[in-house]
Amino acid sequence: AGADLSVFDWSGYEDQGFFGAYMEKHGEAPSYTFFGSQEEAFTKLQSGFTADLAHPCSDAVRKWVAADLIQPLDPSKLTNWDALLPEIKEVDGIVIDGEVYMMPFEWGNTGLIYRTDKISDDQISLQLMADPAYQGKVAIPDAASSAYALASLATGNKDTYTDLTDEQFQAASDWLRSVHPNIRFYWADAGQLDQAMASGELELGWAWNQSELNLIWNEVPAKMMRDVDKGIATWVCGYVHLKSSTTPEEQIYDLLNALSDKESGKYIIESWGYPHANAEAFGISDQELIKTYGFDDVSSFFEGSLFFDAVQPELEAKMLKEFERIKAGF
Amino acid sequence: MTRANGLLFYIILYLAFLYLPVLFLPLFSFNDGTIVAFPIKGWTLEWYRQLGGQETLLQALGNSLIVGAVTALFATSMGLFAARAYVRYRFPGKEASEGLVMLPLVIPGIIVASSMLILFISIGLKPSLTAVILGHTFLALPFSVSIMKSAFDDFDVSLEEAAFDLGSTVTETFRRVTLPIVFPGIVSSLLVTFTVSFDEFVLAFFLSGNQPTLPVYIWSQIRFPAKLPNTLALGSLLLFASVLLLVVAEMFRRRSSSSPV
Amino acid sequence: MTETSIIELQGVEKRFGRFVAVSDMTLSLRAGEFFSLLGPSGCGKTTALRMIAGFQEPTAGKVVIDGQDMAGIPANKRPTNMVFQSYAIFPHLNVGDNVAYGLRHRGVPKAEIAARVDEALGMVELGGLQARRATELSGGQRQRVALARALVMRPKVLLLDEPLSALDKKLREQMQFEMRHLQQNLGITFVMVTHDQYEAMTMSDRIGVMFNGRLVQVDQPAELYARPGSREVATFIGGMNLLPAEVRADEGGTLTVETPGFGTLGIAENPKVASRAKRIVVGIRPEQLEIAAERPADYDATVRGEVSDVAFYGESVHYRVRIPGIDAPVAASVPNYFHTVDHKPGDRVWLGVQGASVIDLGAEDKK
Amino acid sequence: MTETSIIELQGVEKRFGRFVAVSDMTLSLRAGEFFSLLGPSGCGKTTALRMIAGFQEPTAGKVVIDGQDMAGIPANKRPTNMVFQSYAIFPHLNVGDNVAYGLRHRGVPKAEIAARVDEALGMVELGGLQARRATELSGGQRQRVALARALVMRPKVLLLDEPLSALDKKLREQMQFEMRHLQQNLGITFVMVTHDQYEAMTMSDRIGVMFNGRLVQVDQPAELYARPGSREVATFIGGMNLLPAEVRADEGGTLTVETPGFGTLGIAENPKVASRAKRIVVGIRPEQLEIAAERPADYDATVRGEVSDVAFYGESVHYRVRIPGIDAPVAASVPNYFHTVDHKPGDRVWLGVQGASVIDLGAEDKK
Amino acid sequence: MALSAPATLYVGLLVAAPLVILVAYSLWTQTYVTIDRTPTLASYREAFGDPLVRHLMLRSILIAGAVTVVTVALAYPIAYFIAFRARKKTLWLLLITIPFWSSYLLRVFAWKLILGFNGVMNSALLALGIIDEPLTFLLYNEFAVVLTLAHAWAPFAILPIYVSLQKIDPSLLEASTDLGNGPVETFLRVTLPLTIPGIIAACLIIFIPTVGDYVTPSLVGGSDGKMIANLIQVQFGAANNWPLGATLSLLAMLSVGFVAIVFVIGATGLGRRIR
Ligand SMILES: Nc1ncnc2c1ncn2[C@@H]1O[C@H](COP(=O)(O)OP(=O)(O)OP(=O)(O)O)[C@@H](O)[C@H]1O
Ligand SMILES: Nc1ncnc2c1ncn2[C@@H]1O[C@H](COP(=O)(O)OP(=O)(O)OP(=O)(O)O)[C@@H](O)[C@H]1O
Ligand SMILES: NCCCCNCCCN
Ligand SMILES: [Mg+2]
Ligand SMILES: [Mg+2]
C-alpha cells in the first residue's frame, strides 16, 4: 500500500523522520530510488524512468517542464501551502505561468567552507580560491551551474548570473581558469568533499551547508563564510509530480503534506541542519540550534545572496561546454 | 636458485598488490566513525547490524539477485547451444559467428551502455530490470560461450553416438548423456555469468529504472559519508559470499574437466 | 547374395562435398562370420562402418540388413550395435549403468536388466564390477565394458571400429584371442575395422581390403596372403619383392615368365588378377627366398648378389641383397634357428626361389 | 672403462621423492657406437637419457662425458644434443630457422650458418625445404628436421628419446634404416631410447635392457636374443616358452636337465645367468620348436600334444599346443613357406626340440 | 548452424542495432530538450573542431596504453609462475581471481583509501617518519588511474597469458637449452614469441574497454585523469547533447579500433622477426 508510491530522490532523503504523518496513515514508507545529481536525474527521466514524485531544485523546474516531465500541483490539496515561507513561494520555478509545479521542501546555501584552523575569519574571501598559496587545497562542485554561480559572485555579477552577457561570461570563465590550478578535485559528491576537508587535504571548498554541519558534527574546525557581501548562494529544492505517475493523487498529496508538515520541518532542521520551507517549523525547533545555524533571520538568506534560478538555456549550454574545457585545463 | 627466489618474492609483492586494497574494505567496515580514514576510531559491528533494516538496500540486493539469476539462465542456455554448435559442427560463417559472440568483451562499456539505452528507448522498452537483463545477457554471453566450449571440448562426440546406437532418441540422448556430462560446465557458467551481472555497474546505471541493482545503489551511497560504512559492511559481506561462490564454481569446474572421456 | 547373408551393401557410395570417401562398395556378409575391413588410414573404413550403423547416410546405393532396406532408418532403430574406437564409456555412469543403458531405453523390467547386465559382464570377464566408476577403469577394462554394453543388446551385427588400437601390445594380443572366442561362442556377426594386418589376419574369417574408398579384394586371410589381387594388396599385407616380368607362354593356368635376375620361371596364373598382359609384375615374399653362401640345389631359379643390409629381428634375420639387373635390393628373411647371422653386408650370396611361390600380380602399367 | 669410452655412468641414481626412477646404473659407451636403452614403459629410460643430457641431475653417482665429469654442468653447456620424442620443432620458426637455432646462439657467421643448415637438411633429405613452416610438415618430415637440428650442432653424442614412435609402421621402418646409415657415415655416438624390441635389435650395436630403474643386461642384439640373462629379458624380447626344469648333472658347461613333457635334455650353461641352482627355468623360442603330424626324427626330444589355437600371421603361422604335464599351452611358430596351414585346432601333433636351442634361464625362485 | 543462431543473432542485433541508431543520432542535433532530425554533420564538425576532444581522445589512448603495458608487464611473471613453476595451478588461479569478486566500485574506492591524503600509504609513511606532510601526488591524476586499473584488470591479463604459456610444450624449452641457450635467451627466443597471441589477447581485452571507462577516472582521476568516456558521459548526462555523445562514441570506437589493428599487426610482425 504505502510502498506503492515511488519517489526519485537524493540519496538519504528516505529518512522516515521527514514524513511521519504519511507513515502513520499508510503504515509503510514509499519506495525510493536515488540519483546523485539533478543532471543524472534529468537524463534518467528523459530516457523513460518512471516514478510518482521527484526531488529537483527550483533552477531545474523550467527545463523539466519544457521536457514535458512534470505536471502541475493543485495548491488546494496542499494543506501546508499557506504556511510556507512567502519568500520561497516567489522563487522562480515554483510557480510557472500561474501553475504550481514544485512544492518546496528544504533550502539552504552553497557557500565557501573553510578550515578555521588554517584561515582566519577576516582573511577569508572568494579570491583566496585563486591564490597560489592554496594550490591543491581547493575544491568546487563538478557542476557547471554551481561553478558559474561561484564565478559570478567572485566577478561581481551575481545579479545577472542567469543571464550573463558575453563579457561577463568571459570574466567568469577566466576566473574559473585562474582557480583551476589550485583545484584538488571537482567534487561529485558531498561525502568526498567532507572527507577531504576533514583530513586537511582541502582548506577551501564551495559546498552546501549540509557539509558544514557534517564537519562540525565530526569536530572538524570548519565553517561556511556566511557574509552576503563576501558572496554566498541560496537554493530551494522540492518535490514535483511526474507525468509518469500512476499512484492515486490522494496518496501523493498525503506524502507532500507530510513532507511539508512543521513537524517534518523541525526534524530536518534539528537533525540535518537544513532550513525547511514551512515557516512554522522554526518556532517549534530547538532555538539554540536555530541560532547556531543562523536560521533566526530567514530573510537574510534571500537578500543579497545569489539565488539559484534557472539559467537561460543558451547560456546553460555555453556554461556546460566551457566548464568541460576549464576542467581539462583548456 | 636465486632466480627462483626472485620470482617468488615478486609473486608475494604482486599478491599483496592484489589483496591489500580489497582487505581494507572489511577493515573499515568495523570502524566506529563515518569518515573513512586513518586512524581507526574504534571497533563496532553497528554497520552490519544496520544492514538488515535498510529497505532500499535489501530491494537493490533482491533486484541484483533476480537480474543475475535471469541473466545467468539466458546467457548459459544460449551459450550452451552456441558452444555445442561451435565445437561440434563446421558451418558457413562459423568463424564470424564465434568472433561476433566474443565482441562484447572488447566494446567500451560506455558505448555499449549509451547505445543500448538509445536502442531500448527507440523500441519502447523503458529503463527497467528487463532492460538490464537484456544488456547483461549481452555482456555475459562471451563468458558462457567460452566456458561451455571448453566443456564440450572435453566431450567426445562418440558418447552421443553410442547413446544413439543403443536405441536412444535425440532428445533422450541429450537428457541422459549430454546434459549430465556437461552439467558441471553449466553450473560453472551459471555462476560466472551470475557474477558478471551481479558486479556490473555501467550498463545497469544506464538501463535500470526505478529499481536499482546493487552496484547502482552502492554508487548512490558511496557519495554520502553517513552511508559509507554501511556500504563497506555490505561490500565485505559480498566479498565473502563471492569467495564462497567461486570456490563452489571451481569445484564444479574441476569435476567437469577431470572427467576423462 | 546368398540366402543367409545378414548384411548387403549394394553399390554404396559416400561423398563429402566433392570428396568421395567410399565409392561403389558392394559386399555381402554371411550371418555369424567375423569380417574385417582392412586398409590404410583414411581409406574409408570408418565411413563404411558408420553407414552400416546408420550414423551416415550413403549418397548412393543401398544398405540391407537382415533383408530390410535401411534407407531412412536411423541408427537407434537398426539391429546393429557398435563398439567405438574410444569406447565411449559414459563417464557419469558406473559400469553396471553403462551396460544397462540400452536396456533401460527399451523398458526391459528391472530384474531382467540386472540379470542380463550380469551375464554380459560375465562374458567379458568383468563380473562383480557393476559399481565401479567408469573413470576408474583401465584401458582393457574399458574395452570390455564397451563390448558388454553392445553385446547385452543382442544385436544381429556387432560393429567394431578399431576396437583394440588403444591398447598396448600385450593386452591387444590377449583381447584378439578372447574376442575371437566370444564371437565364435555367440555366433553373432562381427564387422571390425582395423589398419593392422596381423590383427585382421589372426581374427577374421574373411577380410575386405580397402584403398582410397574402394573395396579392392575380399578373401580369407591365407588366400589374401597367397594370392593378392593387386600390387597394392600384395605390399600392404606382409613384405613383398616386386619384379617386372614378361609372359612367354600362358597355358593350362601356368605362365612362363622371363624376369630380370631370376631368369625364366613357370608360375601359377593368379585368378584374382583381373587383366592379362604381356608385361606383368610378379611378387616374391621375402620368406620364400632361400639365401645361402653356396648355390642352393633343387630351386627352380637361383641368382647371385651382394648383401647390402642385415637386420636382426630375433626370431628371424632380414637381409637385403643387391642383384645386378634389379633396381631395388631384394629382401629375404630367414628364420633364426641357429642364433647366428650367417651373412654380413658385403658378402656375396646366392638366392634361390621356386616357381610355385612366385605370385602373378597382373599387368605392369596397372597401378 | 676403455680408453675410447665417450660416456660413462658410474653408479648413477635418480630419485623423485621416495620413488627411485633409476638406480645404480653403471655403463660405458664406446665412441661411435649405436647404443639403445630398451625397456617397458616407465622403467626409467627417459630419466637415464635426461641425466646424460643434463636435464636432470643424478641424486647419486657420476656422469662423465668425453672424460669430463658433468656434475653441475647444465644441458646447454654439454657436448650432447637431443632428438625429442615429440620432436619439439619450434612452431614459430620455419624449417631453416629451426635448424639454424643452435648455430645462431653460437654466433656462427651468417654465411656459414646457411651452408651448414643446407648440408644438414641435405643429410636428412630435406634439401630445399628451408622456408617451409614447421606446422606444414608431415610426421616423418618433422622427425628429420629434429634430427638435422641436432646434427648441425656436430655433437659428440646424439641422444634420441623414442625418435620413431610417432611414425606409422612403413615410415618407421624406412627411418630406422636411414638413421642407422647416417650414424655409420657420421661416426657420431647415438644413444637411443625405445620400447620396441625390433627397433632396438635392428638398429643397435649394443642394447641395454632396463626394468624398474635397473639396467639388467647389456649386450649385442643376437647375444641378447640367444642368451638372455633372466626370464624378464627372455620374455620381453621375442616369444618364449618357459618350463621348470631340474638339473641332474652340470659338467663342462653342459647341464643335463629334466623337464615336464620334453623329458631329459642336455643344454648349454648360460654364462649370463648369475645364480646356479638345482631347480631352474629353461626357455624355448617358438620358432625353435618343430611341429609335425608324425613324430619328427633327429630331434633330441619330442612330445605329443593337441593344437588349441592357430593364428595366421602371413609370413608365419603360430600354433598353441596343449601338452600333458605343462600348464600353459606351448607356442610354436612355423614359417609359411607353402601358403597353407597344416594343423587345425583339435589336431594331435608332435613337437620336437634340440637341446642346443633350449636356454638356461637360471634359478626357479628368482623372479 | 541453428544452435548458435540465438547467441549470434542476439549479439549481432545488440551490436548492429545500437550502431545504426548511434550513427543516426550522430547526424541529428539537439537544442535544449528537443531533437532535430534533419541530417547534418554538425556534431562531427564540432567534435573535430574541438581541441578538447582531440586532447581527451589522445590522453585516453595514452592512459589506456599505459594501463595495458603496466598490467601486462606486471602480470606476465605471475602467469609464467603459475604455468611453469606452481604445483597447484587451479589454486593459484583461484587466488588470483578472489579479490575481483567484491564490488568493482568498492575496489576502486579501496584505492582511494590507500592513495588518499590521509590514506593507508600516507599514514604509513608518516608513521615511519619518511615524510612529514602527506603526499598529494598519489591521487587524482593519471598515475592513480593507471594503478587502479592495473589492479582491476589483473586477472584479464594473467589468464590469457597463462593459457598461451600453458600450451607451450616444455620440450621446446628443453630443446632450446639443448641447443646451447641459457634461460634468458630461451625465454626471448622461444617463450616470448610463442606467447604473443596471449599477450595480444590480454592487450585487447584491457586496452579497448579501458578507453571507454569513466567510473575509475571520475573517482580517482581528478581533472588530470579524465578521459574521453567522461566527456561522452557528460553529453548523455549533464550536457544533454545526445547527438554529440553519439558522435564521440563512434569516433572513440573508430580510434580505438584503428589503434588496436595497428597494434595487432605490429605485435604479430615483431613476433615473426624473432628467430
Ligand atoms: N564428415 C566428414 N566430412 C568430410 N570428410 C570426411 C568426413 N568423414 C570422413 N571424411 C574423409 O573421408 C576419408 C575417409 O575417412 P574414414 O574416417 O572413413 O577413414 P578410415 O579409413 O577410418 O581412416 P582411419 O584409419 O584413419 O580411421 C578421409 O579422407 C576423411 O578425411
Ligand atoms: N619428474 C618426475 N617426478 C616424479 N616421477 C617421475 C618424474 N619423471 C619420471 N618419473 C617417474 O619415473 C619413472 C621412470 O620414468 P621415465 O620417463 O624415465 O620412464 P620411461 O622408461 O622413459 O617410460 P616411457 O617408455 O613410458 O617413456 C616413471 O615411473 C615415472 O612416473
Ligand atoms: N544547482 C543547485 C544546487 C542545489 C543543491 N541542492 C543540494 C540538495 C542536497 N540535498
Ligand atoms: Mg577410422
Ligand atoms: Mg620415456
From TrEMBL, chain B:
Pfam families per record: BPD_transp_1 (PF00528)
Superkingdom, taxonomy of origin: Bacteria
GO biological process: transmembrane transport
Key words, A-Z: Cell membrane, Membrane, Transmembrane, Transmembrane helix, Transport
Cellular component aspect of the GO annotation: plasma membrane
Places the protein is found: Cell membrane
Domain ABC transmembrane type-1: 61-249
Segments crossing the lipid bilayer: 7-28, 65-87, 99-123, 129-148, 181-208, 228-249
PROSITE patterns for this protein: ABC_TM1
Membrane topology: Multi-pass membrane protein
Cited InterPro entries: Bact_Polyamine_Transport, MetI-like, MetI-like_sf
Family: Belongs to the binding-protein-dependent transport system permease family. CysTW subfamily.
UniProt name for this protein: Inner membrane ABC transporter permease protein YdcV
Organism in which the protein naturally occurs: Albidovulum aquaemixtae
Lineage, broadest ranks: Bacteria, Pseudomonadati, Pseudomonadota, Alphaproteobacteria, Rhodobacterales
From TrEMBL, chains C, D:
GO biological process, one term: putrescine transport
Catalytic activity from the UniProt record: ATP + H2O + polyamine-[polyamine-binding protein]Side 1 = ADP + phosphate + polyamineSide 2 + [polyamine-binding protein]Side 1
PANTHER family found in the cross-reference section: SPERMIDINE/PUTRESCINE IMPORT ATP-BINDING PROTEIN POTA, SPERMIDINE_PUTRESCINE IMPORT ATP-BINDING PROTEIN POTA
Protein name as catalogued: Spermidine/putrescine import ATP-binding protein PotA
Subunit structure, interactors included: The complex is composed of two ATP-binding proteins (PotA), two transmembrane proteins (PotB and PotC) and a solute-binding protein (PotD).
Highest taxon listed in the record's lineage: Bacteria
Described purpose of this protein according to its UniProt entry: Part of the ABC transporter complex PotABCD involved in spermidine/putrescine import. Responsible for energy coupling to the transport system.
Annotated EC: 7.6.2.11
Pfam families cross-referenced by the UniProt entry: ABC_tran (PF00005), TOBE_2 (PF08402)
GO molecular function: ABC-type polyamine transporter activity; ATP binding; ATP hydrolysis activity
Organism for this UniProt entry: Albidovulum aquaemixtae
Top EC group: translocase
InterPro entries recorded: AAA+_ATPase, ABC_SmlMolc_Importer, ABC_transporter-like_ATP-bd, ABC_transporter-like_CS, Mo/tungstate-bd_C_term_dom, P-loop_NTPase, PotA-like, Transp-assoc_OB_typ2
Keyword terms, alphabetized: ATP-binding, Cell membrane, Hydrolase, Membrane, Nucleotide-binding, Translocase, Transport
Any one of the GO CC terms: ATP-binding cassette (ABC) transporter complex
Family according to the record: Belongs to the ABC transporter superfamily. Spermidine/putrescine importer (TC 3.A.1.11.1) family.
Domain ABC transporter: from-to ranges: 7-237
Automatic annotation (TrEMBL), chain E:
Membrane-topology descriptor: Multi-pass membrane protein
A biological process from GO: transmembrane transport
Alphabetical UniProt keywords: Cell membrane, Membrane, Transmembrane, Transmembrane helix, Transport
GO cellular component, one term: plasma membrane
Ranges of residues in domain ABC transmembrane type-1: 57-263
Signal peptide: none
The keyword Metal-binding appears for this protein: no
SUPFAM superfamilies documented for this protein: MetI-like
Major location category of this protein: membrane
UniProt superkingdom: Bacteria
Pfam family, one: BPD_transp_1
Alphabetical list of InterPro entries matching this protein: MetI-like, MetI-like_sf
PROSITE patterns in UniProt: ABC_TM1
Localization in the cell: Cell membrane
Keyword Ribonucleoprotein appears in the UniProt entry: no
Record-linked PANTHER family: INNER MEMBRANE ABC TRANSPORTER PERMEASE PROTEIN YDCU-RELATED, INNER MEMBRANE ABC TRANSPORTER PERMEASE PROTEIN YDCU-RELATED-RELATED
Family classification: Belongs to the binding-protein-dependent transport system permease family. CysTW subfamily.
Protein name: Putrescine transport system permease protein PotH
Species name: Albidovulum aquaemixtae
